[in-house]
Amino acid sequence: MTKILLDIKDLIVYFYTEEGIVKALEDVGFSIKKGETLGLVGETGCGKSTTASTIMYLLPPTARVLKGEIVFKGKDLLKLSENEINEIRGREIAMVYQDPMTSLNPVLTVEDQIAEVLIYHFTMAKKEVKERAINLLKDVDIPAPERVIRMYPHELSGGMKQRVMIAMALAGNPDLLILDEPTTALDVTVQAQFLNLIEKLQEKYGISILWITHDLTVIAEMADMVVVMYAGYVVEYTDVTSLFKNSLHPYTSLLLKAVPRIGTRVNDLEIIPGVVPNLLYPPSGCRFHPRCPSVKSICKKQKPPLMEVENNHFVACHLYNEN
Amino acid sequence: MVKSYLERSTVQVVKRRLLRDKVAQIGLFTILLIILISIFVPFLAPYSPVEPDYSKTLQPPSKNHFFGTDEFGRDIFSRTLYGTRYALIVGLGVVFLASAIGITLGLLAGYFGGITDGMIMRTVDIMMSIPALVLAIALAGVLGGGLKSIIIAIGVISWASLARLVRGETLSIKEEPYIEVADSLGISNLHIIFKHILPNISSSLIVYTTLSMPDAILTSAALSFLGVGMQPPTPEWGLMVSEGRNFLGSAWWISTFPGLAIMVISLTFNIVGDALRDALDPKLEGKGIIN
């Protein structure tokens, strides 16, 4: 059995906003093994990005972590000081953000931005920094890296910026890479290249990946394990094959049916009725019950626990709760 | 190697816009002239600025004395030329001091927010509520006149509005995604502030500092005029205007020419500042100068 790199347990994060308390994450838990890719799926506002921000400890000032542990290489990240966490950010855990267009500083060259990470985390001679930066750009398949390195972000295309972002994230040689909806801003052909690139890099660097997305096709392609989140809860947690062959939670099943497939007519596409609940006033019991096709009376009263229904297949649903 | 496109574009766009603007050209040329005069003034001035010549007191402008002479027979033209040095030194010194304080505090207040922001901005509010000139007079008086104390006095009264400007700009840049990216890569706060935020607000700073030069020069002239700035026999314009005050009826030239010099230098920096603001405005991209 491979070593567990990141282990998140019972994470509860609330936002104390002016309108009230937003219960963003409730009892979120999962773990990532070394070299593994874990896909985190869910609709907008279900807590995917909050989970990532909590791991990086880059939550907005209104957020509070009420409970939970984020154990990374044996250390609880939530107990580290600002300086200690700064040594982990970029060096051991790096994140690639959703929008490559605005994620690079417009007044600094590509070299400045990659070199900064290198200089910050390693002691390196200037010449070495430049060499390493060029090598990183080569690794992310950027043509003519010696030329690109002197460019400013606005001279690069969206796909190129995305690659530069990844080069920056890889600069610290991290063990865990968090990709926050990395393919959303890319068109389909670039997306395919991007997935190949990530696969190649994962092999070369041996990194683990936390892949946040709402795109199930990307998950099917890239992930080893999948966590499905709904309204701040983990509703299903299993390996990718079981999820696609034998999804147990009604939400996951509906989500899978909502993916368009070649061969089906567009108006046949199924939708999940209703909307994602407002987490200021979450529904009682199971947060999915207002939209659930197989709702029972207990669902309105009691929150279902996450249970291992089959081998390594965790589901939080009263359908599988014998008692 | 191909020159970077942005380097080419921003710098060249600004340059092109400035060159298309006739008034800006005149302004830039005048600034160059003022700088050259202040450097080479010992070779340019026909007479000593301080040595009295009692055989030639209170002479009107003539071929020998372009701007006439004062009650000690000193050549006003030479004194006015020497005055550019003081004006430039005070202007640059004040801008430097006010920037050092104002930019740093503004960046810290905007970036860290909370208590830091509160303390810095309340200090700014207090500074803004005190009449600036009165405070400068008091400070210059306490510090005892001379170039250094003028610079300190005016620097202290002018950092506050700069801090306010920088804070505002920092607040908006701070929310940009690339700042969070830098944060997520473990870059320290100070590094983010000075390497990521400062370059992004530099164009407004260039405009602001250029436009605050004439303010500093005018205030220093006012301090000298009021007797708490430079001391006689320094050829400082404000002081010269003050000295000629008693002779305005009989020898108008003593006060008039240094007064005109103050006007020219202030006007020049204002024109260039305005032109820079237009030239650096990204919203004018491709539209040329509106005039």
Segments of chain B where pLDDT lies below 50 for 5+ residues?
1-7, 286-291
Largest interface: A-B, 35 and 24 residues
Helix content of chain B: over 70%
Structural class of chain A, please?
A: alpha/beta
Instruction: Give the CATH class of chain B.
Output: Mainly Alpha
Task: Give an overview of the whole structure.
The complex is a heterodimer of chains A (323) and B (291). In chain A, helix 3 packs parallel to helix 6. In chain A, the strands form 2 sheets. An 8-stranded mixed beta sheet of chain A has the order 6-7-8-3-9-10-12-11, with helices on both faces. A 4-stranded antiparallel beta sheet of chain A has the order 2-1-4-5, with helices on one face. Chain A is α/β, with parallel strands linked by helices and 323 residues long. Chain A contains 11 helices and 12 strands. Helices cover 32% and strands 24% of the residues of chain A. Chain A has one domain (4-92, 174-320): Rossmann fold. Chain A has helices spanning 48-56, 82-88, 110-121, 126-139, 145-148, 158-171, 188-205, 216-222, 240-245, 250-257, 297-301; strands at 4-16, 21-33, 37-41, 63-72, 75-76, 93-96, 176-180, 208-213, 225-230, 233-239, 307-310, 313-315. The model of chain A has no long low-confidence stretch (mean pLDDT 87). Chain B is an all-alpha fold and 291 residues long. Chain B has a single domain, classed as MetI-like fold. Helix content of chain B is 73%, strand content 0%. Chain B contains 10 helices and no strands. The longest helix of chain B has 37 residues, at 76-112. Chain B is elongated and about 75 Å long. Chain B starts with a helix and ends in an 11-residue tail after the last helix. Chains A and B meet through helix 2, helix 3 and helix 6 of A and helix 1, helix 7 and helix 8 of B.
